[in-house]
Design goal:
Helix 4 packs parallel to helix 5, helix 9 packs across helix 13 and helix 11 packs across helix 12. The protein has a domain of 135 residues: Rossmann fold (3-Layer(aba) Sandwich), CATH 3.40.50. It is globular and about 70 Å long. The protein is α/β, with parallel strands linked by helices and 403 residues long. The protein has an 8-stranded mixed beta sheet with strand order 8-7-10-11-12-13-15-14, sandwiched between helices. A 5-stranded parallel beta sheet has the order 2-3-4-1-5, sandwiched between helices. It has a two-stranded antiparallel sheet with strand order 6-9. Helices cover 43% and strands 20% of the residues. The chain contains 16 helices and 15 strands.
């Protein structure tokens, strides 16, 4: 039985929310359903109290838990919040406000008050990242919450007194993913739980916005992506593969379906980038899963394609640490990731092992060709070997993930 009181710390989200505390913007936490947004708000509230904020100054509204007593109109939502304001400076947290049609009017009205600092979460079809600019133009900052990082995952397993070492934990993480509740479940129960999450996303997020989309075809497309994490492919290739498997679609339809999966955070697209010419390319992007547990669910196997699963984990970790993450090219050679923050790139290569000299030279070559002074890192599963190759840092993947 799972201890329902286990709350996995989300330090990055908590620190971000506290960083924007008392600033004149609406704080919005977005992300995949069940990735921990509600918990992030609760942790931020706890941190506020620990910093000296009076508990009476915190107004927490969880529309899901209110059930039939929840406000149903923007006016009711606004009135419900205002009735609970009891000090000249209050922190108003609204979890999933999009359950109220026109919720943005209530959020705007609260934001306009002198006594409110407003925080909201969103994951469904009315508050996806793509909608924020329309609903809250110029008045918000967004934090995109991902499932647990490996460091957070290790903390969750430690709370269950799991005595597995880091290598064992990483193997589980690479197979079952990092959805917070799934991290607390026995391995044999994870797929059943994730199936419920996936069906909810497809029905409530995708079908609501795109009622003409075929759910069986969309699920078949997601399975294809799970089986081709980190591979390059054309829209025609995907369409031909799905059609051959009984799901007749055109390349145009595939493009529409891919966009639908991206906007609800089930997948992410890493755009192609000419690392030497510092420009975006038209072709050659890659797709990665928002959580590797969906690969386990859709394909039912864990032992294959370790290299691309590791690549997926690195991509998600880079999204946590950098503003932009792309896949790079140097001529005909590939750099796995070009991560950028404040206009400064950091180049990453990912390999299972470079103990073989030929493999090491192949992985280092595109980084050496760049000829610039920006940081370059080679990540591997090796726990031994050189740590520096003429300015290119070699790091153990486990150590880097736990940084």
């Amino acid at each position: 039985m799972i201890n329902q009181q286990v709350i996995v710390p989300r330090p990055q989200a908590t620190e971000w929310l506290l960083h924007w505390k008392d600033r004149d913007v609406i704080k919005v936490v977005t992300g995949l359903r069940r990735c921990g947004k509600s918990t992030a708000l609760r942790l931020a509230q706890r941190a506020l109290v620990e910093s000296g904020v009076n508990e009476r100054s915190i107004v927490s509204i969880d529309l899901e838990r209110l059930g039939f007593a929840a406000p149903t109109t923007p006016q009711e939502l606004y009135d419900y919040a205002v009735a609970r304001i009891s000090s000249p400076s209050c922190y108003v947290f609204i979890d999933e406000p999009q359950r109220v049609k026109g919720f943005e009017r209530a959020v705007d009205a609260l934001y306009a008050r002198e006594d409110c600092d407003v925080y909201v979460t969103g994951s469904n079809s009315d508050l996806l990242s793509s909608e924020l600019a329309t609903l809250l133009t110029g008045r918000y900052v967004e934090f995109r919450l991902l499932p647990l990082s490996f460091a957070e995952y290790r903390g969750a397993r430690a709370a269950l007194a799991d005595d597995a070492d880091d290598t064992e934990l990483l193997n589980r993480y690479l197979s079952l993913g990092g959805m917070p509740y799934a991290s607390l479940l026995p391995a044999e129960d994870v797929s059943e739980y994730l199936d419920g999450v996936l069906n909810t996303v497809l029905v409530k997020d995708v079908a609501t916005r795109h009622p003409r989309i075929s759910m069986p075809v969309l699920r078949a497309l997601l399975a294809f992506l799970a089986d081709n994490v980190g591979n390059r492919f054309s829209l025609k290739t995907v369409a031909d593969t799905l059609t051959a498997n009984g799901s007749k679609v055109s390349p145009t339809t595939v493009s529409e379906y891919l966009n639908a999966l991206v906007e609800c955070y089930l997948i992410f697209k890493a755009e192609p980038y000419d690392a030497k010419g510092r420009r975006l390319l038209q072709q050659g992007g890659k797709y990665y899963l928002g959580d590797l547990g969906f690969r386990h669910l859709l394909l039912g196997r864990d032992g294959s394609d370790l290299g691309h699963r590791v690549e997926n984990v690195v991509y998600l970790e880079l999204l946590r640490r950098y503003h932009t993450v792309r896949v790079g090219r140097v001529g005909d050679l590939e750099i796995d990731f070009v991560a950028e923050r404040e206009g400064k790139p950091h180049y990453y290569q990912v390999a299972l092992s470079v103990l073989d000299e030929a493999t090491l030279r192949r992985e280092l070559r595109p980084l050496e060709l760049l000829g610039d002074a920006y940081p370059k890192t080679l990540l591997t599963l090796d726990r031994i070997g050189a740590t520096d190759h003429n300015g290119i840092e070699q790091r153990s993947l486990v150590d880097w993930l736990l940084k």
